[in-house]
Amino acid sequence: MTTTSQSQQTTAALSLQQQFLCMFAQGFKTGPFGPHYTEVFAWRVHGRVDVRAMRLALADVVERHEALRTVVHLENGGAQSVLPAVQPELELVDLDESPGADRDRRAEQLMIQAETRSFPADQVPLLRAVLGRFDEQDSVLVLCAHHSAADVWSIQVILRDLAECYTARAAGDEPQLPEVAQYRDYVAAQQEEADGPAVAASRAYWRETLRGAKILVAPVHPTGQSPATSYHRFTTDAHLSAEVSRLAKETRSSPFMVLLAAFTVFVNRRTRATDIVVPTFTPGREHRFQSTVGSFFNFSPLRVNLDGCRTFRDVVSRTRKACIGAFSHELPLLHILAEAPELMSSAGPDAVPTLFQAVQPPYLMQGDRIGDLEYTAIWRRVIPQPLGSDTPDGMIWSMHLSDTEVVGGLSFSRHLFEQAEVGDQAAGFLEVIGEMVAAPDSAI
């Protein structure tokens, strides 16, 4: 485990993921190092929460994970400095206790409030928490981290470690967690392996796969609003969720592959394009860094060619092949762009990238008991947001499939797209999903 003295700071190079973010940096005022580029997740907590123990546990987590106390320097090609640990904020909020109150909705509103607060990336720690209490036995724990320091996988790691540290602190003990690799260890490993055979083989894969490819973009319709990111959200019934899962099993695919296949059909019907390259987020982690906090996520372009596809089952097969190839050759986008320099040429002021992802974080606690507390992740987000965590100019489709429904969201640049237009697209996509999974062997 890499450690940092409380009296000094340690400077390290940037990862390729951080270097990519630096390409779009606009100081610490806006963009990927701006105060609204945040990662937020929440859990319902059942049991009496000891606030003092929770504060101590939060400090333990910041001490344990260097990324949460690391500042990126944007000048002169970029670097990062690991700083001494600082006590993170824990905000306490009393929530509505009235009989019949919709606690699920109130919990989501608390997440939104936490997400819309300014979060400077040049001040440590890059983690803070909100504890909303309905009563002594029912609380909502919201964790916020700056997205340049922690991805969605990292947030789950943080909660897992926080729960273990809290259990020890509540019992009056020091936490005894196993040693963990740090993000700068990952940067060093990435540099060492950059010229190795595995990276070379993956670069060759992308060079061939993306020959002549251009990223999927959406034409913009400027609205005159100030630049910011809004969120449109939607849900489906249990029948559609079951049909997606059924078809995934039949085709030896994942639900994500089926939903992405339906998305390519949706795009084809809107644009008549048959060669569709949709970026998605991939975790970017080897096994040895699965318990490390940091910005690991990659953008992986998934190229699906619909030429010759007669039925939706054909499209799923093509999509499955594209996903397996991409996921088994995952690389940071800077490596991929070096092999496919024309990939982003379709994007510009009048057309911005469109991404598609499935939200399936690891360690997703659902009624998991650690010590005296039980944690249940809040993954169901249904409240639209006029202002949320920043995403780069463009549009991101996010899907979460459960046993009872598909919950989806569209984050979009509100200064580039009208809300009504986004809503129409979401409704049209849901129609295509329903049509395709209901009759996968019918002509598309």
Description:
It is a single chain. This protein has two domains: 10-184, Chloramphenicol acetyltransferase-like domain (Chloramphenicol Acetyltransferase, 2-Layer Sandwich); 196-360 and 382-438, Chloramphenicol Acetyltransferase (2-Layer Sandwich). It is 34% helix and 23% strand. It has eleven helices and 16 strands. The strands form four sheets. Strands 5-6-7-2-14-13 form a six-stranded mixed sheet, sandwiched between helices. The chain has a five-stranded mixed sheet with strand order 8-12-15-16-9. Strands 1-4-3 form a three-stranded antiparallel sheet, with no helix packed on it. Helix 3 links the parallel strand 5 and strand 6 (127-135). Helix 7 packs across helix 8, helix 8 crosses helix 9 (312-327) and helix 8 (255-271) packs across helix 11. The relative contact order is 0.17. Residues 1-7 have low confidence and may be disordered. This is Condensation domain-containing protein. It comes from Streptomyces chryseus. InterPro entries: CAT-like_dom_sf, Condensation_dom. Residues 9-330 form the Condensation domain.
